[in-house]
Amino acid sequence: MRPLLLALLLIVCVNAGFSDFKDKVKDFFSGVKIGERAKKALEKLKKVFNVTKLLHVKEKLNKVKAKLLTKLVMPKEVQEALKEKLKSLIHRKKDKVSPNGDTIDEINQKHGLQDVMFQGDIILNDQQTQEVIEDVEEQVSGNRTKRQAFVDRYYPQTTWQQGVNYFFDSSVGYTLRRIFKKGAEEWSKNTCIDFRENSTAQDRIRIFVEDGCWSYVGRLGGQQDLSLGEGCDAVSIAAHELGHAIGLYHTQSRYDRDRYITLYAQNVKPDWLDQFAKQSMATNNNYGITYDFGGIMHYGATSATGNGEPTMVPSDTKYIETLGSPFVSFYELDMVNKHYKCHDKCHPSRSAKCKMDGFPHPRDCTRCICPSGYGGRLCDERPSGCGRVLMATGEYQTLTDVIGDRSAGTRAREDFKLCNYWIEAPQGSRIEVKVVSFTAGVANDGCPYAGVEIKTHRDHKLTGYRLCAPEDAGVTFISHSHIVPIITYNRMYETKTVLQYRIVGGGTRVTGIRPNPTTASPNCYDSYRCSALEKIGICTSPSFSESLKKTLCPKLCGYCR
């Protein structure tokens, strides 16, 4: 969120085989390589930036480099713990899907922007740069100012309290305009922030096509830029850059980041180390919201890698594919709603009583914004549409899901197709879910093209584990409760997910959930043909109309209430 940044975090590892990295760090701090690359990239962007000003920002940051080195040493016990953690990682082949790059850092690297942008895709203004330097001084000295975290000296001027005004430069074509608007909707549909196309507003964002994907952070006043260049034409990328524009920094820069992920500095390209800047507790207030590996503002596990290996390893290694998500997470929505005071629009006495830790919608307080995998007005139902409720027993049963659009070919589509399943068991039971197989060809950080999300946590609000690699076969999860939401999604060709599930023991009782929707209505019956139709995927196949599914297999496809 709108944090004051702490410093360019470099983990200097001098023991246990990390000496080569120490030499790389010296090269990084020499400034020579950075200067050459930055100037070359900036040469292309003279019409966009004040080049002298940007280089001045870089020079100011370089002045604090010596002080940083006194604080950035990885303790030996951390090194040992990291080695053990890496042993549990499954080696997954990362697929190259887009020739322009599959992630923001890959796209920006192709344009040489890693030496220009802060944290890979952010442009800092003078005030923000000064805040970085002040935070470095504070970290080294141990003295804290009285600045408030997040709601800092510039708040609320740095937020778009009257809505976000934007306009399209002539370089933006019709398709990219549509994609940007969809990215804006990812924020507006579940917050109180309005986005308006207005080229004459005093404060506005110019959307244009320039090298790379990048944005300024927060409302600066006047006109500010947001670039969606070649390769940035994805709804998730537009939503990510807009996340910066409304005040978000990257999740991995949270002050408490080290409790949740470990930076494997040996794998990081030295000239990308600023991507891992971290805040301090004095400059980062997350409104008491926990760290979520599955937010759209979190970079992928191999971001800025120099050798293809992970640069960030989550404390729960099964989350490694989840880093770099294409979806705005529930916790991110909660944080933005709090920062923009959207929650104040719904008085508790006149608002929906949300289940599963949802919260009243600021645009309609009688309904709820729900964690992923939950739906209905009060978050106590399976989300409507594709998918169904499955009843677990003590024996393994199989869930086979085929989702996508073969007719669209292998070019990534703008929109995801999603299916929501609930695996249920008697209250007090726990459920085991085992991955049998997943289609090859779409494995990438965050599973941005297709994947399956499995929610087995005690905290319903957390993003579940996302998987999208065939190497995940055999990975097993045990739930904390008797309900496990399963979400499959796809925006490229067609993918098949095969899971097995069964009851394995006692678990946490989940209250407030409506009765199993496949058995709640005694007048809801499936046709005798459903057993055969299930084998060809009637509930998930686009070949069958919604009305036909409701007529032939309402119970099977989850339409009964």
TrEMBL record:
GO terms for cellular component: extracellular region. Zn(2+) binds at H240, H244, H250. Residues 1-16 form the signal peptide. It is found in: Secreted. Metalloprotease. GO terms for molecular function: metalloendopeptidase activity; zinc ion binding. InterPro entries: Astacin-like_dom (IPR034035), MetalloPept_cat_dom_sf (IPR024079), Metallopeptidase_nem (IPR017050), Peptidase_M12A (IPR001506), Peptidase_Metallo (IPR006026), ShKT_dom (IPR003582), Sperma_CUB_dom_sf (IPR035914). SMART domains: ShKT (SM00254), ZnMc (SM00235). Its main location: secreted. Its cofactor is Zn(2+). This is Zinc metalloproteinase. Keywords: Disulfide bond, EGF-like domain, Glycoprotein, Hydrolase, Metal-binding, Metalloprotease, Protease, Secreted, Signal, Zinc, Zymogen. The active site is at E241. GO terms for biological process: molting cycle, collagen and cuticulin-based cuticle; proteolysis. It comes from the Eukaryota.
